[in-house]
Amino acid sequence: MSSVGIRVLGIDPGLTRCGVGVVEGSAGRPMSLVHVGVVRTPADLDVARRLLLLSEGIEEAIATHRPEAVAIERVFAQHNVRTVMGTAQASGVAMAIAARHGLGVHLHTPSEVKAAVTGNGRADKAQVGQMVTRILRLAEAPKPADAADALAIAICHVWRGGAQQRLAAALARSGR
Amino acid sequence: MSSVGIRVLGIDPGLTRCGVGVVEGSAGRPMSLVHVGVVRTPADLDVARRLLLLSEGIEEAIATHRPEAVAIERVFAQHNVRTVMGTAQASGVAMAIAARHGLGVHLHTPSEVKAAVTGNGRADKAQVGQMVTRILRLAEAPKPADAADALAIAICHVWRGGAQQRLAAALARSGR
């Protein structure tokens, strides 16, 4: 673990655009942007090859930025039935890669992510983008929205999960 | 490509039980069983680790049995909403692995598989198991049903797709 906190890779899963964002920080301290990007795959390619391209993009993000944990948006079956299968397949690929790298995988719902970064579980994409920009002290909001969403997921994980996990690990080490 | 036809890995995707079956044959010639099994993952493990175990099982089947193509049951969002996410994630992992090995991935719907194997797109699991047993000249039906289904998917692919693909490839090679 880095001395400045935990480094988290956030993933907003999708076949057409998969947001990938890496932040570093800890609850109560300033958080910093490490990386933000989007893995795009061509819609005219077959799904298997698109998933392969996606897996290569995620592998590259892990190899380059060496996160300590991976946070992924939880996909629900009841929303967006037309795109949900591709999103679920993309999230499955992302989870398997993270597990193969020995990284803990943590799922956060869209409303948990929105509530964590904006204080409102029903915030819209613009509000999420604004708060991500402010939290990471960026000059402007990351584009497209999938990139900002990936950072929001990573920030949510640092605040919701990372701090507790560090505490639990420290307590476990100290034998308490 | 083997001299006795095409070798196809059929996958019936699932998180709890993923059927894995390998057959070899060609349309119009007897088909033979190469391998049948089920990759099981414990329900009390987190989804990411379950997907990792599944990916290891599929990698092993590919490494051991060297299929020339992979056929996977197409998952629909509208069925079994409670389990469809896990099934979609499992199929995504399977597809990405097959693509990484340079194998063509072919999706067949459940009714295409049933129609190919039994002549009836609405056949039940017992009928599918019986026909798989007969087609592969087995002493008894493979158990559990996921294993028989994986073989049915592979058989379907040999009959529906494999023969045409070989012909197309041969024609392409001969420059016609």
UniProtKB/TrEMBL annotation, chains A, B:
Binds 2 Mg(2+) ion per subunit. Mg(2+) 1 binds at residues 12, 146. PROSITE patterns: RUVC. It catalyses: Endonucleolytic cleavage at a junction such as a reciprocal single-stranded crossover between two homologous DNA duplexes (Holliday junction). The active site is at residues 12, 73, 146. Keywords: Cytoplasm, DNA damage, DNA recombination, DNA repair, DNA-binding, Endonuclease, Hydrolase, Magnesium, Metal-binding, Nuclease. It is found in: Cytoplasm. It is an enzyme of class 3 (hydrolase). InterPro entries: RNaseH-like_sf (IPR012337), RNaseH_sf (IPR036397), X-over_junc_endoDNase_Mg_BS (IPR020563), X-over_junc_endoDNase_RuvC (IPR002176). Its cofactor is Mg(2+). SUPFAM superfamilies: Ribonuclease H-like (SSF53098). NCBIfam families: PRK00039.2-1, ruvC. PANTHER family: CROSSOVER JUNCTION ENDODEOXYRIBONUCLEASE RUVC. The RuvA-RuvB-RuvC complex processes Holliday junction (HJ) DNA during genetic recombination and DNA repair. Endonuclease that resolves HJ intermediates. Cleaves cruciform DNA by making single-stranded nicks across the HJ at symmetrical positions within the homologous arms, yielding a 5'-phosphate and a 3'-hydroxyl group; requires a central core of homology in the junction. The consensus cleavage sequence is 5'-(A/T)TT(C/G)-3'. Cleavage occurs on the 3'-side of the TT dinucleotide at the point of strand exchange. Belongs to the RuvC family. HAMAP family: RuvC (MF_00034). Homodimer which binds Holliday junction (HJ) DNA. The HJ becomes 2-fold symmetrical on binding to RuvC with unstacked arms; it has a different conformation from HJ DNA in complex with RuvA. In the full resolvosome a probable DNA-RuvA(4)-RuvB(12)-RuvC(2) complex forms which resolves the HJ. This is Crossover junction endodeoxyribonuclease RuvC. It comes from Aeromicrobium alkaliterrae. The gene is ruvC.
